[in-house]
Amino acid sequence: MRLQTTRTKSIVTTAMAAMLLLAGCHKKQSAPPPYTAPPAAPAAAPTATLTAEPATIDLGQSVVLTWHTTNATSVSIDGVGPVNLNGTTNVTPSNSTNFHLVATGDGGTADANFRVTVRVPAAPVAGTSSDLPDDATFHAAVPDVFFDYDSYDLNPAGHTATQQAATYLNQHSNIKLLIGGYCDERGSAEYNLALGENRANAAKTALVNAGVSASRIRVISYGKEKQFCTEQNESCWQQNRRAQFNIDR
Amino acid sequence: MVNRTRLNLVKMAAVVGVMFLGSAALHAQDNVFTGTNTGADRIRIAAANFRAGSADAGSLKQTFDSVLFNDLQNAGVFDLVSKSMQPQSMPGTPQEMRLDEWTAAPVSAAYVAFGSLSVAGNRVVVNAYVDDTHNAQYPQVLGKQYTEAGDDNGARTIAHKLADEIILRLGGGIPGIAESKIYFVHAGGGNKEIWMMDYDGANAHAVTHLGTISLSPRVSPDNSRIAFSSLGRDGFQIRMYSLLLNRPISFPSGGGTNLSPAWSSNGQLAYSSSRTGDPEIYITDANGSGARRVTNSRGPDVSPTWNPKTGSQIAFISGRSGLPQVYIMDADGAGVQRMTDGGYATSVSWSPNGQFLAFAWDRKYGPGAPGGQDIYVMEIASKRWIQLTNGIGRCDFPSWSPDGRHIVFAVGSGARAEVWTMLADGTGKHKLAGTGSDMPNWSFR
Question: Which of A131, B6, B330, B403 is most buried, with most CB under 10 Å away?
Fold first, then answer.
């Protein structure tokens, strides 16, 4: 009986010591957070949504833009001008347009984007003849697409470039296209080849959505195996992060 | 009542005790065991200079002695007696062996490798012995005769075979790697060809002469083929080279870009293919038939590597969540698990025992970020990792040796790249192949 009491006591002591140790360990990890004044209740930030119906039209058709905002005091849409806080309007864009809405309120600004694609019919232009343009003419009309760092999504400049390329290619249906995907020299060779493939395919997808037949387009990823520029700085790396359009002869 | 209180106290004490022990165990093990430094003392062994058994053995004997010494040194399991400490005597047979010379300080060897090398006709013959210096009555633990072609390469081969035999007997039963090969990419003249060399960097020579850019060589488990990817008219495609026929053999293309092949230990291939427009991991047999897709996510999936122990799991690199990370999955594509927690992680290689991943990792990736890309090893079960390289330049493409004790890797990139090797705990780093050498791949055996 006596022995048992002692043992229980010693177990309790061990347990307490363990708890103390644990508490000690725990204390080290959690320094008291620095004091910060509770923020003053801010004005609610505005929100904005913008849609268009239909999203893709033929040249000459119109679309209905619809927008909703909350907590805004003024709203404007690029190309349309100041508009009501909520509403709809008809627009007839002559080429593919990014509609950009900015809602300003006491709590800041919010913006919303919606892209309307306009299918421009292939105009019968010189060049449907069988001879191909020379490379300089081609590159002037079909600019390369440059990508952000470690990204294979088209940025706004990339959208503009692919639309320009699509317009030209739709007018010159005899041209077959080779898209090369390139990466800058940083990063790992195998991964960059896969990333370059995604870049070239992003450009291809944009062209196909703009009406260029997929059968005219061939895609090759060069990763970082072929570099346009070999200096080690950002402007050079940017040169190398591209999808390049070439005539597939 | 009292008894019940006491019982509750005991229960509580037990619970707290278990919690405490659990946390203590977690904190005590903050290192990763790679098998090269397990706490056991390294065996002290001496590699005596062999006795020349014929007058014309001179230069071959020199090659043999230095290769044997380096092989035992590189093994990572021995404490090798330096040549300058060795006794003057050069025993050529067990009868000439005087063990007390080798047990006395400063030699203090537990084992001695010795013997004789002679040239007979156009053959080189080596009689090799290993003695246990602490067993005076029956010291011999190894006695073998080797014969090879009578040239430098023959002497080198015999030294590698003897070293592997000694490592197998004294190094815990794991076969040595001195006869293994390393395949790599060699840049020159605007092209990149597949080259091969011995595990110690000797005999480096070209395998392919395709006159284009070839990348990612991976040798098959039976050393009969090399799979790689090569730039042709349709971009990068998987190519196959037969080491038995010494020429390329056909491999079908499924469309798109095809990259980064990887052999399973039973001869299946996994590789990245963008036949759907997005790079995904596919598995085929060794001839490229029966392709099946095992990943399904937007973004690059590339650089697969099989678990060589089980053949039932694949590690790979994916950009599905932004910057590339290491993932593992079952070979049927189920059970995908992300292993790295950020940064830029590429070029994963699975250790032969199945427990570790080696990969290149830039933990603070981005323009102007501090640090660089180094080789890391992660224990798969715990996701704990250690950094193996630091400050020697941009490191990439680690590949495990067959015994799991070594990792070969590339330092630098492009035309400046070199191939280096190290023990799997990061020690013993040294260069194997000079500038223009990249993407090394260690053979399965």
Answer: B403
